[in-house]
Amino acid sequence: MMNQDVTLPLARLACPAGTEPDAAHVEAFKRAMGLMAGAVTVITAGHNGAARGLTATAVCSVSIAPPTLLICVNKFGEAHDAIAGSGHFCVNILSEADRPVADRFAGREGLAGAEKFSGARWISLASGSPALEDALVNIDCKVAEMVEAFTHTVFFGTVLDVRLGETRPPLVHFDRAYRSIA
User: Which parts of the sequence belong to the Flavin reductase like domain (predicted)?
Assistant: First the structure.
């Protein structure tokens, strides 16, 4: 039986097409996206001898033939130009033990650039992208297409290699916090 007391506050906050959202719309959207659980990843790239990366949940499989995924990266983030310039990236899927790595790449420790790579073991993949040695999975990709989408670029990456690590509980982001699935 359906609960009759359910309210839909987002339905009342519909933003008319072609208008700029106000603060209430932005907060409602952030809240809605925060309630969509997602695997926590660190996306890395190496370009011109410099390693860059970011924490992201905006990762999605696109196709099996050929194996392709997409990532969404803020155009103003420091990793954006490394991904675009190198034409490669690595998606490192994190375990709950990798929470400090997620924090570091999310900027919570005030580190920038190559400093974010300290405190963890990294290997270099064939593409030149850094890969977290202890990640659940490393997915090495070649940029196949870039689509500009407002403040972000959607990078479509064809998979060059998949490196599977030890199976452990993954790190998940839900309701604006890291969670574990045990």
Answer: 33-180
Q: Which two tokens stand for residue 129?
A: 């992208």
50-56/41-47 β-pairing = antiparallel
Which residue's entry shows tokens 């983030």? 77
Q: Which residues partner with 152 through β-bridges?
A: 74, 149
User: What sign for the dihedral angle of Cα 70, 73, 78, 83?
Assistant: positive
- Decide if 101 contacts 132 (C-beta within 8 A): yes
Q: Are 155 and 83 in contact (CB under 8 A)?
A: yes
The tens digit of pLDDT for each residue in 100-149 reads: 999 999 999 999 999 999 999 999 999 999 999 999 999 999 999 999 99
Which CATH topology does 21-174 take?
A: Pnp Oxidase; Chain A (2.30.110)
pTM: 0.88
